[in-house]
Design brief:
By secondary structure, this protein is of the alpha+beta class. It contains three helices and five strands, in the order ββαααβββ. α1 packs across α3. The radius of gyration is 18 Å and the shape is globular. The chain starts with a strand and ends in a 9-residue tail after the last strand. The model has no long low-confidence stretch (mean pLDDT 84).
Length: 137
């Protein structure tokens, strides 16, 4: 199954679209979150294990990175690998705490056990909720 994930943050106009390929169709929101976390942990750990041997950037790479706002060589200071079960526990807790909301084809999904009807054309939007910090004096 091929899905499109839209990653959004409140107060930001930029929407990041990420393709996601799943081996089986998730039955509910919890299955979808677990599948997404497993894919992301796999990509995160793979990046940590890669060896970066290129010591310079081409002008095209500098331009592409400058457009995103940061130019670097891609070196990682933290080589610790992510633990899948810890990441799954974190995402479930974050959803229950309201740190992000999920929309499937424009409809909000509010319960982890809610059944999903996903197709290859489905768009899943994750919106990270940010809280305003400050006080009135």
């Amino acid at each position: 199954m091929e899905l499109t994930l839209q990653l959004k943050r409140l107060g930001k106009k930029k929407v990041k679209e990420v393709p996601l390929t799943l081996l089986e169709t998730p039955k509910n929101l919890e299955d979808l979150l677990i599948a997404c976390v497993k894919k992301q942990v796999e990509a995160f750990n793979k990046k940590r294990l890669e060896v970066n041997v290129i010591g310079f950037l081409s002008p095209a790479e500098i331009q592409n990175q400058a457009e995103s706002g940061k130019v670097d060589f891609g070196d990682l200071a933290n080589k610790d690998l992510a633990v899948v079960q810890e990441a799954i526990d974190n995402v479930i807790l974050a959803f229950k705490d309201g740190l992000f909301v999920v929309f499937v084809d424009g409809d909000e999904v509010t319960h982890l056990e809610a059944p999903l009807k996903l197709t290859d054309e489905s768009v899943v939007a994750f919106i990270r909720m940010t809280f305003l910090v400050g006080s009135y004096w």
